[in-house]
Amino acid sequence: MDTRQLAAFCAVVERRSFSQAADQLGVTQPAVSLQVRALEKRLGTQLLDRSGRRVEPTEAGLRLYRGAQRLLALEEQVLDEVISEGVGELAGTLAIGASTGPAAVVVPQLLCEFQQAHGEVRVGLEVHDTKTVVELVAERRLELGIVGAAPRHRGVRFEPFAYDEVVLVCPPGHRFAGRVLDVHELASENLVVMQEGAGVRRIVDDELRRLGLRLRDLDVRLELGLQESVRSAVLAGYGVTFISRAAVEAELASGALVEARIEGMDGRREISIARGTGRVQSRVAEAFAEFARERTATLGRGLGLAPSTPDPPA
Predict the structure, then answer these.
(1) What is the mean pLDDT of each run of 10 residues along the chain (314 residues)?
(2) What is the distance between the alpha carbons of residues 219 and 270, in angstroms, rounded to a whole number?
(3) Is 26 helix (H, G, I), strand (E, B) or coil?
(4) Is 242 helix (H, G, I), strand (E, B) or coil?
(5) Rounded CA gap, 295 and 121, in Å?
(6) Nearest of 192, 180, 188, 189 to residue 265 by alpha carbon
(7) At what angle do helices 283-299 and 100-117 cross, to 10 degrees?
(8) What is the C-alpha to C-alpha distance for residues 137 and 145, in angstroms, rounded to an integer?
(9) Which of 2, 68, 70 is nearest to 34 (CA)?
(10) φ, ψ (nearest 5 deg) of residue 25
(11) In terms of Cα–Cα distance, which of 111, 135, 153 is closest to 291?
(12) Positive/negative CA dihedral, 292, 295, 297, 300
């Protein structure tokens, strides 16, 4: 089967557009249309529904898409292995994404150490919120993702390799500092939160709901995109925030920020490697995933993460 036709077809399914698929592949739109029509003619069935505003796969198209993903991934792996074995070293490009929490502290160190150990490897890191990273992995635009939450997605599987904790922090001298709070005390304080789609925000939403409260019940006046943004806002005295412990280890150690706890709240979260379902990984991706697991197990808290299941909350 012509893998160029399969690649064009998969790009249209993923982008829901012939023109956007052409941009992704670096070819013209007529070329993509020609490849898809040739594939439909060969199989004797319609693969795409072109009647709406967006192109959608038919039932036959969905079945082909799932199989085509595996074939294209296998082709990538074979080519990568042939090239890598030819030079005797790990080589290629690692296209990886990370959510803002892990990307702020942990992922850069892991990637730098990995690239230094494998000089022929090129690394491209994209930083987005968790939802976007997962979608990009599902669409095969990123080979791996590292995220602090695992939203359900049929096109992605998650492999936990470390643990982190979402904590409530405030400036020193704040009335919350060092205390164990009833969750309803949050309603009287200006809360700075991360944007929707962030892993930390998802953990906070779930835990507050479990304790009988919702973010909309609180005084949320600042909704900021990045962990660096909410950390800076709290350091400047503009409120309190929930944030990854790994992102504020230095500030907690120096006393620039102080932790508070919510009674009954469990902020532990898994840090996971996200992979496309049914996709055969390249040697570079497999090597990095193994490196990340081993390095986290070796360094432990030195990376700001726990490499094994943490103790139950007190």
Answers:
(1) 85 90 89 91 91 88 86 72 59 88 80 92 90 90 88 87 88 94 90 83 89 85 84 93 87 94 88 84 88 77 53 42
(2) 28
(3) coil
(4) strand
(5) 18
(6) 180
(7) 110
(8) 7
(9) 2
(10) -85, -10
(11) 111
(12) negative
Amino acid identity, position 37: R
What span, in angstroms and rounded, lies between the C-alpha atoms of 31 and 24?
Answer: 13
With vertex at residue 64, the alpha carbon angle to CA 48 and CA 43, rounded to the nearest 5 degrees, is 75
The label of the residue with tokens 């922090």 reads 169
Do residues 168 and 260 touch, judged by C-beta distance below 8 A? yes
Please give the model's pTM, rounded to 2 decimal places.
0.61
> Tokens 């635009």, residue?
141
- In 116-189, which ranges are E strands? 121-128, 144-147, 156-170, 180-181
**The two three-digit tokens of residue 214, written as one number:** 């919702």
* Contacts (Cβ under 8 Å, ≥6 apart) of 233: 192, 222, 224, 239, 241
The single-letter code of the amino acid at 188 is: S
